[in-house]
């Protein structure tokens, strides 16, 4: 079954390294969508794909890479957008 989720992450995650970490793990888990830094310094992630793949990916996002400090990760279910790949977007 397919699933789509939008996640907003707050913490020490503003660097490009964090967004590349997210993209690498999306590609590894066959998740489509995007990641971008928002003006309020949160990171927005839109992820869609098979439910199990998305759930695995989101659990990785909640922890982040070694030097990231995740303070909060809000999630909400979304409608499928039929993304073809996973991209890093600008504002």
Record field, number of beta strands: 5
Range of strand content: 35-45%
Mean pLDDT across residues = 93
**SSE order:** EHEEHEE
- Output the CATH class name: Alpha Beta
- The spatial strand order of the largest sheet comes to 4-1-3-2-5
Number of helices: 2
Count of distinct structural domains: 1
The oligomeric state of the chains shown is single chain
- Indicate the percent of residues in helices: 25-40%
- Spans of 5+ residues with little confidence (pLDDT < 50)? none
**Class based on secondary structure composition and strand pairing:** alpha+beta
Amino-to-carboxy terminus distance: 31 Å
Rg, please? 12 Å
Please name the CATH architecture.
2-Layer Sandwich
Form type: globular
CATH topology annotation: Alpha-Beta Plaits
Instruction: Report on the biggest sheet.
Output: 5 strands, mixed
What does this structure look like?
The protein is α+β, with helices and mostly antiparallel strands and 91 residues long. The protein has a single domain (2-89), classed as Alpha-Beta Plaits (2-Layer Sandwich). The protein contains 2 helices and 5 strands, in the order E-H-E-E-H-E-E. Strands 4-1-3-2-5 form a 5-stranded mixed β-sheet, with helices on one face.
